[in-house]
Amino acid sequence: MLMIDAVQNHVRSVFSHAMRVVAPGGKNQLRGKRGQHLAGTLLRLNLASLAGLFACLTLCLLSTPATASATTYNVVSNCGATGNGSTDDTAAINTCIGRLQAGDTLLFPQGTYKITSSLVIDVANVTVDGSSNTATIRAAFSGNMLLFGNPNGFCVGCSLGPSVSLAFTAGELSPAFTTSTSLGVNAGDYIYIHQGGQDYSTDTCVGGGSPPCQGHPTNCDVSGCRGEVLQVQSVSGNQIIVTTALHDTYDLSLNAAVAQKLQNPLAGITLKNITLDGASTAAMPLAFYGVANSTVSGVTITGANDPPSSGSYTLFANVTYGLNLNNVTLTSTAANLAQLGISEFGNVSINGMTISGASGGSALFSSGANGSVVNLTVDGTLGTFRPFKTTATRYTTFGSLTVKNGTSYYNGLSIEYYSSHNQFHSCLVTNNGTSGAGTGNAGINLFGNYNQFNTFNNCTVSGNGNIAFYVSSSDALLLARDLYNTISGGSFSGDSNGESVIEIEGGGTLITGATLNGPAGTNYYGIHLDSHQTYACVNNNTFTAHAFPSGAIHVDNGYHDLGSGNNLNGQGSNLQSGTCP
């Protein structure tokens, strides 16, 4: 901009010199009195100055950026779609998609658009608009409906380049890491950094034997590795500085930490105010692969062909950064599950989403960090899958999360495999799982495999089978490594046919300011501190009178377990009184 201003000032100067008015003989005669005519003058054009003026004007034109006008492509009026629900509109819509350039809009007027093959958009900075939710795209085939991303990358991890190992371990919350060789990235690029970890769901003991034992720390859980997508701020040699921070310790020697470049990321997508109808045939109505800084808003997705064992999703996002999902509804019909799948992510944001279906709803967050999820409701009614699950999800905030009506022993919230430093504010977890002791079910269940430093603030947990809140030790290797988790405030109700209302098998747990309403199962308690755990701190909790005949708080070994200020309402406790360190 400064260059353009300088050129324009120079043009004004040259123009003034070139158009100077001079008298014959070269003397300036512009000194007449007011009202006098300036007789005897000539307009002489300085040819050298005119040549300079022409050159400057040319430079100005070249230096001024061109402003290409954005185009709206109406799939009906511009490309011949009918929107009548019976004619195959696939070819017409693809004609419009083929014309899209950055800044353009693909507009679906009111109507129902039948498609018989996938619609693929791989142009950045485009908008898909469904005319205030009056437009529906309906599938008449069994594949995937609407896909955004690199066309060579429509599978899990396919948008990533080769793996490059780290040069040395990079610490948690560090702003940078270093690779052993060049990753080939520049400022503004995106990378996926990841590693293995032990005690995943299928881990086994090294050298045989029985748990608890050492596992295989370079492998990953079936639901994902420990990792996240990050944006590059700057590069210095093989050192890569990121825009946020690393949200795990990435260990080269122990966990084989590597990084991969996101190739040809698709950024600036807006999908808004449209309905995608899978008609119980399309396996995946909406998918994003390798997409960055994009927004979905006011979208309804229904009728996905997602049987619980299919491995497909109603909405799936793989290797994404800065994906925003606002006011989205996922539903299903027939014997299908409405599923949200967010895997290998960074900075995901959800504000307003409901998930339910004929075979329940489910939400999975895997291998990512630094997210914000607000007002997500998952209804697992008639489901045969976990209604809510995190795998290796870190430093993500969940606000006003509702998980309800899950079936069998699949829990309400399942927190698994290195899911740490997450915050759950004002969550509602109700009516999940089968009643009865020994099922392993819980309203909130931390699985025992390194889920640490999670905080549950003012959550309401009631009507769930067996246990309301469970910090477990029972994953593959029985390591009981779910440490330093916090319950702060909230209300917890149990199951009269189940176990204790709150069961803790991981060390360093803080329980403060909670209300325990009961009931507990026969011979169980309000809070049970199991023999696996140590250094628990239990302060200022209230236990409903007469709800816990066997005792409000029971401690198995009491190793540095302390508490004070608890209102037991006359019920027993063997917790040592004291101030927590």
Describe this structure in words.
With 581 residues, this protein is mostly beta strands. Among the domains are: 2-63, no CATH class; 175-248, no CATH class. The strands form three sheets. The protein has a 38-stranded parallel sheet that branches. The protein has a six-stranded antiparallel sheet with strand order 11-16-13-14-15-12, with no helix packed on it. It has a two-stranded antiparallel sheet with strand order 1-2. The longest helix has 17 residues, at 2-18.
Kindly list the characteristics that best describe this protein:
581 residues; mainly beta; 38-stranded parallel sheet; 6-stranded antiparallel sheet; 4 helices; 46 strands
Unreliable spans: 1-67
Helical proportion, percent range: under 10%
Largest sheet: 38 strands, parallel
Number of extended strands: 46
Q: How many helical stretches?
A: 4
Q: What amount of the residues lies in strands?
A: 35-45%
Shape: globular
Class computed from helices, strands and strand pairing: mainly beta
Question: In angstroms, what separates the terminal alpha carbons?
Answer: 59 Å
Mean pLDDT reading:
88
Radius of gyration: 32 Å
Map the helices and strands.
Blueprint: H1 2-18, E1 21-22, E2 42-43, H2 47-63, E3 72-74, E4 84-88, H3 90-99, E5 105-107, E6 111-115, E7 119-121, E8 127-129, E9 135-139, E10 144-149, E11 164-165, E12 176-178, E13 190-195, E14 226-236, E15 239-242, H4 252-255, E16 258-261, E17 266-267, E18 270-277, E19 284-289, E20 291-302, E21 315-330, E22 338-346, E23 349-355, E24 361-369, E25 372-379, E26 388-394, E27 397-399, E28 402-404, E29 413-416, E30 423-425, E31 428-430, E32 442-446, E33 455-457, E34 460-462, E35 467-471, E36 486-488, E37 491-492, E38 502-504, E39 510-512, E40 515-516, E41 527-529, E42 537-539, E43 542-543, E44 553-555, E45 562-564, E46 576-577
Parallel strand pairs: 3-5, 4-6, 5-8, 6-9, 7-10, 8-18, 9-18, 10-19, 17-20, 18-20, 19-21, 20-21, 21-22, 21-23, 22-24, 23-25, 24-26, 25-27, 25-28, 26-29, 27-30, 28-31, 29-32, 30-33, 31-34, 32-35, 33-36, 34-37, 35-38, 36-39, 37-40, 38-41, 39-42, 40-43, 41-44, 42-45, 45-46
Antiparallel strand pairs: 1-2, 11-16, 12-15, 13-14, 13-16, 14-15
Helix pairs in contact: 1-2
